[in-house]
Amino acid sequence: MKRALITGITGQDGSYLAELLLSKDYVVHGLIRRSSTFNTSRIEHLYTDPHDPDRRLFLHYGDLTDSARLVSLLMEIVPDEIYNLGAQSHVRVSFDEPEHTGAVTGLGSVRLLEAVRQSKIECRYYQASSSEMFGSTPPPQDESAPFHPRSPYAAAKLYAHSMTQMYREAYGLHAVSGILFNHESPRRGETFVTRKITRAVARIKMGLEKRVYLGNLDAVRDWGYAPEFVEGIWRMLQMDDPRDLVLATGVGTTVKEFAHAAFAHAGLDWQEHVEFDDRYLRAAEVNALIGNASAARSAFGWDPTITANRLAGIMVEADLEALQSTGKPWIDRPITAGWS
Ligand code: NAP
Ligand code: GDD
After folding, report:
1. In which element (H, E) is residue 3 found?
2. For a Cys-Cys bond, which of 52, 66, 160, 266 suits 205, CB 3.0-4.6 Å?
3. d(CA 223, CA 27)
């Protein structure tokens, strides 16, 4: 059985990746942060009792800012594959916390790469790079497009991306970076724009709220479906020649169009419920990200099928169902609370 270590296992992608690897008979180890509240809701369905002798999911406390812990964990687990998905991943928040974002999203990767080098463990390494690194470079963006980061998050990701490439070239590490365009799902964090919109649609449909406040409605993103992207992550790391590849759907959609599709799915008119609030603008915006993933298609036949319109439907349905099934919508946080 292969052993994998996932940082960021409690996040959207980490939870889908854990599911995928368990379905492929891996033993999965995940790094989780100590938190004063439970932060494992996305992987609770995968949890197995520690007394179960057949258990294949193991969670370890740790943090990407703690080098010594990363080295000791690697020595203990001896993974065949490492997926570094852990990050402060919110672009807007990175303007408020540039140093923290650099420490976790940028230097965190270097701590992990260095732990691999120091522990001398033979393993493959995946770095979660981002289309945000292209920043102001106009679409379509592929592996040859120049990077021009427009946020502390993007700059931190670019540093991690360059260091991953450097460890591959200097130390012969089997390391790849997936340059992933936006991908969403019902498990998407509640403050990213797609999920913020689909939660709002559900709450408005149920009569709990009347409006949602958004920032830039004209930004264009290439929104795909997280489970399909996680499959691409796994396949990328199975390639025998490690190289960095773009994963994207190739379809650009504005925030406005996504809102239109999501509200329409519930029989609502977005224009009656969406209002502008400049608190959601960024000091520098990335206007348009639309990826060209033809290199990944040729390398391992990756061909995503779900784009923004269908995604909006999937996410609205899930948010409606979640709200209806709790029977206690009042315990769900309101969307107008002002979070980024
Ligand atoms: P996410 O839902 O925000 O998950 C981030 C994960 O990182 C969470 O498990 C979080 O733990 C963990 N984390 C945060 N700070 C940490 C620290 N100091 N030490 C250890 N772990 C820490 O992100 P995602 O959407 O799944 O994305 C996964 C990765 O892909 C991220 O690196 C992201 O930047 C990158 N990426 C995402 C997209 C996208 O569209 N989703 C596109 C390109 C790249 P808690 O649960 O405790 O907060
Ligand atoms: N979050 C948010 N909230 N974004 C808004 C809002 C709002 O109220 N209103 C408009 N937007 C616009 C943002 O300005 C941005 O142009 C777009 O919606 C998408 O924002 P997010 O959903 O926050 O995602 P992101 O594109 O900034 O970053 C995501 O994708 C990157 C890959 O391109 C994150 O997942 C990053 O971690 C990831 O690397």
Report:
1. strand 3-7
2. 266
3. 30
Q: Which residue in 107, 105, 167, 102 sits closest to 130, CA to CA? A: 105
* pLDDT recorded at residue 327: 60
Span 285-318, pLDDT tens digits: 999 999 999 999 999 999 999 999 999 999 999 9
Into how many domains does the chain fold?
Answer: 2
Residues in the chain: 340
210/281 same-domain check: yes
State pLDDT tens for residues 10-55. 999 999 999 999 999 999 999 999 999 999 999 999 988 889 999 9
Residues with CB under 6 A from ligand 2: 89, 91-92, 130-132, 181-182, 191-193, 196, 214-216, 219, 221, 255, 280, 282, 285, 289, 340
159 and 297, same domain (yes or no) = no
Going by CA atoms, what residue is nearest to atom 31 of ligand 2? 182
| Residue 339 maps to a domain | no
